[in-house]
Amino acid sequence: MPREIKPSPLGLMVLWQLFQGPMHVYRMQKLLEEQGKNRVVNVRSRANLYQTIERLMRLGFVEVHDTVQSEGYPDRVVYAITDAGRVAAREWLREMLSSAGGEYPDFIAAVSILFGLAPDDAREELQKRAETRSAELEETDRQLAASPHIPRLFLLEEEYRRAVLVAELDWLGAVIDDLRAGRLTWSEQWLLETWQRLMPQETEPNDTDN
């Protein structure tokens, strides 16, 4: 995938929704809300979803699958993921898991669909992130140790950075340990069964797709 194509948290969410099968935007929005993904990315405006899908289509990651006609409702376009989109989704997920660039909400969005990778693959990407964060913590500690005569008031941002890094590293370590030990794991069959059990059945919209 060309390096200039920047991963998008909402784009990643859309691609992983379409991994489940072709669907229209109304269905996609409702599933994202049911799954709590609206706390990670903005799906309140359906226009955001349409704009994201248009970008994914320009990139060749999504295509029109069908147009559904329902009596009493506007025609709805059903979208599907392409083979290139499947490749891009996994590449974006790996990049957003391992990158420690700190751009919100990339990491949270990636963590919310960690199951998009095999457990060992996910663990390796989280380990890369932990190594980067550990290096950042060491640098922060050096900065604090090298400034013994600077009043604390002027070092509060470094204190905050250190507290956040320690908390993230504690969490990453726990998740990585659980993945390594098999206490946190999944399979395609388990994901399919869980998806079928937890996801609500599709219902007709009571508004228009505007």
Q: Might you state the CATH topology name of the largest domain?
A: Arc Repressor Mutant, subunit A
Largest sheet: 3 strands, antiparallel
How far is the first residue's CA from the last residue's CA? 32 Å
What is the rounded Rg? 21 Å
CATH class group of the largest domain: Mainly Alpha
Helix content: 55-70%
Please tally the helical runs, counting DSSP H or I stretches of 4 or more residues.
Answer: 8
Q: Spatial order of the strands in the main sheet?
A: 1-3-2
How much strand content do the residues show?
Answer: 5-15%
SS class:
mainly alpha
Order of helices and strands: HEHHEEHHHHH
Low-confidence stretches: none
CATH architecture of the largest domain: Orthogonal Bundle
Average of pLDDT? 88
In CATH terms, the superfamily of the largest domain is Winged helix-like DNA-binding domain superfamily/Winged helix DNA-binding domain
The total strand number stands at 3
Shape: elongated
- Tell me the count of domains: 2
What does this structure look like?
This protein has 210 residues and is mainly alpha-helical. It has two domains: 9-98 and 189-198, Arc Repressor Mutant, subunit A; 117-185. The protein contains eight helices and three strands, in the order H-E-H-H-E-E-H-H-H-H-H. It has helices at residues 9-19, 25-34, 46-58, 83-98, 106-112, 119-145, 156-181, 188-198; strands spanning 23-24, 62-70, 73-81. It has a three-stranded antiparallel beta sheet with strand order 1-3-2. Helix 4 (83-98) packs parallel to helix 6 (119-145) and helix 6 (119-145) packs antiparallel against helix 7. The longest helix has 27 residues, at 119-145. The model has no long low-confidence stretch (mean pLDDT 88).
